[in-house]
Amino acid sequence: MTRKTLVAFVAAALTSATCFSQASQPAMLEDFKPSALNQPGQEYPQVNSQGYARFRIKAPKADSVRVSLGLGGKGGTILTKGDDGFWTGTTGGPMDEGFHYYNVTIDGGKFNDPGALNYYGSVRWESGIEIPAHDQDFYALKEVPHGNVQQVLFPSKSTGTSRRAFVYTPAGYEKDKSKKYPVLYLQHGWGEDETAWSNQGHANLIMDNLIAEGKTKPFIIVMTYGMTNEVKFGKIREFKIDPFQTVLTDELIPYVDANFRTMANRDNRAMAGLSMGGMETKMVTLNKPDMFGYYGLLSGGLYTPDDLKDKSKAKLIFISCGSKERPDGVTKAVADLKGAGYNAVSYVSDKTGHEFQTWRRSLHELAPLLFK
């Protein structure tokens, strides 16, 4: 992927981050309930059964309050001040199902909603809201055996420090000390960090449920910081894959193979990522085709047969996006790859855009295809 293509890709990704439809909607129902991501005991923000969100912020001395939703905090819901000093407002339409970042602008200053939990995105800690999804059962917390997500600090000579990663090990990993596992290296998007896939994406719960249902082979997931946030927005042309590739392939993978019971070979190692993490996945897998046997781009660009020419043949190429992104490009790319003899699979998340519900669903579709 050229830098010019990368700029276009990121711009398109940001533009596609629409949170709610502008089309005419049926009458709004007043069955609002607190969001599942609220701080303990907080009544707001709230969501209703149609996907509308309602916000209530105490700012008695403010002159204006607006809530900005979505990747980068674009758009806005204007709140109205009441006699009690609280500002209240409801989105102009239903939001897409799943997780959304948002922030509050009070008299020109950007703040987080004190009623909501915070999540790292857009290169800052943002408020989070969850719109209940019709298919949320696949990432629900259930009474099944649960894996473990642990923080590790691994030495990085290339950056002169210790770096952090989160490692998911499936249920049963601690019991059978002789069993080894394949590994998926799973990358976050621009402005996020290594906490995103567990906190916003529920990757561990998705895996727990799939494994309990016998739908996927148990494997380890490693999530680390993608060295993307050092590139300021608007300066994406300065992005280079080399520093992150060195950390991943020369430092993190050897650490994981030395400290976890892994099947340390290409056929049992996968890499995937969302958005800019997908772009990183494409670059790294093309540069290091002998290290990874499975590739996944989740709203993160495309492979072409020419990209893969004269490379070690991937065992699987998975490409996905939301239906509100560019699904035709995904399906055509996969058709071209199949025509060239590659094992390629496409997936389009229905009625979602460049957002975590797309990527939760994508991981749910990808995991059962890995390490067969």
UniProtKB/TrEMBL annotation:
The keyword Signal is assigned to this record: yes
Gene Ontology MF term list: acyltransferase activity, transferring groups other than amino-acyl groups
Signal peptide: 1-23
Keyword Signal: yes
Protein name stated in the entry: Esterase
A Pfam family of this chain: Esterase
Gene3D superfamilies: alpha/beta hydrolase, Immunoglobulins
Domain of life: Bacteria
Alphabetically ordered keywords of this record: Signal
Species: Spirosoma agri
